[in-house]
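## retry 2 of 3
previous attempt timed out at serialization; input unchanged, resubmitting
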Amino acid sequence: MLKQVIPVLHMTSADATERFYCSRLGFDLEFEVPASATQRDPCYLGVVRDGRPLTVAARLGERGSDDDEGTGTATPAAAPTKKGDALGLVVANLGAASRAELRLPRDRVGVEIREVLGADPGTDALEEGDLVVEVNRKPTPDPAAYRRVVGALAPGEPAWLYVFRPRQRFVFLTRIEVEKRP
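## retry succeeded, writing output
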C-alpha cells in the first residue's frame, strides 16, 4: 500500500495532519497508518483530491505546538546565496524531447524544476526534474503561468506545490514559505 512516500510535513499530531489535509486543503481521507507507541515517526495518511491519490508521511512533534498546527513547517533558515524565484526554485519548460523520453501523458503538464536553491524545509522534498503542476491549486502549465502565480504571493505567505515526479510516477504536496526579498 505504501509504495513511495515523501515526508513533507512536520506536524504536532496525526489528527493535526488529517485536519490540515482534509479540512484546509480539501482532501478526502482514504487511510491512516498511525505511528506506533515505540516509534512516533512517521505517521502516514492516504488522501485523495480530484480523484488523484496522495500518500503523506508526517513527522510528529518536531516543530511548533498545537497552536501552529496548520502552518506545517518552520520559517526558512536563511536566504539562498544564488538567485532563484521567491520559492527558491529555478524552473523552465519541459521540452518535447524530455516529455517523450519520460513518456508523460498529455494531461500531465507543469514547469520542470531545474535547480533547488531555497532554504525552506519544504524544498527538501523537491528534486531537479520534478514537475510543479500547481501552486496553491492554480495550474502552472508553463513558466509564464508559474511566474504569475508565484509573483502574486506575498513574502512569508505559504505556497503549496502539487508536484509530479516523472521517473518514479508519483505526486505529492510540499509547503514552501515565500522568501522575504531584500
